[in-house]
Amino acid sequence: MHPPASVAETELIGHCKQGSLKHQEMLYKHYYGFAMGVALRYCLTRDHALEAVNDAFIKVFNGIGNYNTDRPFKAWLRTIIVNTAIDSRRRELKHQLTTDLDDAAPIRSGTFIIENINAQDILKLLDALPAIQRTVFNMYEIDGYSHDEISAELNIPASSARVYLARAKEKLRKLIVAI
């Protein structure tokens, strides 16, 4: 069960449903930081993230009449941002070279104890991943998507999603050792 929305948030959403531009702007400003944080995990550049956030808010305002108040607004917004960023990444991924997964080497597993690593270091490590690996890693490890859901969202086989995740983890392990 999620905590009830604050009265201010409920009123703000209600005014947005009525089409109030002033309240839409207030909602945008209130959730902008959260939205950028989500989008930056899926987009390669800050400009792409900003574009994804703006596109997502357009979708939010166009579809806010369908928003189910039984669900937390932040979760609904996050879903829209993730899907918008993925749609944008999907269009970009069509133009990237792909690797034949049949030639993939098995990934060995290892355990690393990470101490003294901060959020900036983690973001830099994620930025070092190839785009598809970064997207799959974010979806699976951070946002909790299953391999089947990732497969459906990115139009790739679930087995490919597993391989991309394994490769991302292996590359992150190597990068952590280098720190």
From TrEMBL:
Source organism of the structure: Mucilaginibacter myungsuensis
Residue stretches making up the RNA polymerase sigma factor 70 region 4 type domain: 120-172
GO terms for biological process, alphabetical: DNA-templated transcription initiation
Upper classification of the organism: Bacteria, Pseudomonadati, Bacteroidota, Sphingobacteriia, Sphingobacteriales
PANTHER family: RNA POLYMERASE ECF-TYPE SIGMA FACTO, RNA POLYMERASE SIGMA-70 FACTOR ECF SUBFAMILY
SUPFAM superfamilies (alphabetical): Sigma2 domain of RNA polymerase sigma factors, Sigma3 and sigma4 domains of RNA polymerase sigma factors
Gene3D superfamilies hit by this protein: 1.10.1740.10, Winged helix-like DNA-binding domain superfamily/Winged helix DNA-binding domain (1.10.10.10)
Full protein name: Sigma-70 family RNA polymerase sigma factor
Source organism superkingdom: Bacteria
Similarity field: Belongs to the sigma-70 factor family. ECF subfamily.
Gene Ontology molecular function, alphabetical: DNA binding; sigma factor activity
Keyword annotations: Sigma factor, Transcription, Transcription regulation
InterPro entries membership: RNA_pol_sigma-70-like, RNA_pol_sigma-70_dom, RNA_pol_sigma70_r2, RNA_pol_sigma70_r4_t2, RNA_pol_sigma_r2, RNA_pol_sigma_r3/r4-like, WH-like_DNA-bd_sf
Domain (RNA polymerase sigma-70 region) ranges: 27-92
